[in-house]
Amino acid sequence: MDSWYKELVSVAGNQCVSREEDMSRHTSFRAGGRAKYFVLPSDKEMVAALIRLHSEHQMPYYIMGNGSNLLVADSGYDGTIIKIGSGMDRVSVNGQSVYAESGAMMAKAALLAARHSLSGMEFAAGIPGSIGGAAAMNAGAYGGEIKDIFMEAEAADRWGNIVVLKKEDMGFGYRTSIIQSGEYTVLSVIFGLNPGNAEEISGKMNEYMMARKEKQPLEYPSAGSTFKRPQGHFAGKLIMDAGLAGYSVGGACVSEKHCGFVINKSGATAEDILTLMEDVRKTVYEKFGVILEPEVKIIGNRSWRQLCDL
Fold first, then answer.
1. Residue-wise pLDDT tens digits, 289-302
2. Contact 136, 177 (CB under 8 A)
3. Do 150 and 121 meet the contact criterion of CB atoms below 8 Å apart?
4. Choosing from 122, 130, 175, 188, which is the catalytic residue?
5. Active-site hit among 154, 225, 255, 281
């Protein structure tokens, strides 16, 4: 038994720690390599203790949520992946606010809000990510964003101290926040909502979910929108206008249903997906002079080519 594994077990226990974990089981792309160490914490104190341990020993780690916006290189991740998931997924309502631990799914919190006749989270019903991941990237859809309903969050800083972040501390922008700097890890969020009609709220949520089903290739593994929306453009339209609908590399393919999605059509490797993304980015830049930036987080032992390399 190696010494670092023993350190992790001393903090998290045998039940929560594994080695050489296949990350294709934990990402919506259903592709990618193995994590050298993998921990599924059971509470916020464990997350803070794990962060403190890694910082003190200067060991690499990555915090993930549901894996719906993540791709791990085929060669794997040579460090610890800490997945905030089923051990930290409690949600509750207090008056007009919803408290959600960061491992809870957005849809779970939105449905609870609807049952309590609270409006404001309808946009989140079909977002396939966790609360923590959604807060980190200021997730949004159908005109709504996390920043619109965010009140405060509990977070662990990079030394494992638990702090409270107010809305003004979050630095929210388009698909970004201060969380992405790596200085903080979201542990829980409180959302402020408005009184509404439960039937109308549920109707709107169903409408949004049906629209997603009709317009997006949900029948295939993917990470949702692969690229961020460039200013003044839509990534999917640029990709379609570049003639890349259906373009494939190995088992990875640009969806013909929605060109903003790269899908795992048939046993794609992470390398297939990354190469396809690079090809798309290069072609769109050559044709339109627009830089597409990945919305998908890419980690592991594989370099992502920068625009200057194209």
1. 999 999 999 999 77
2. yes
3. no
4. 175
5. 225
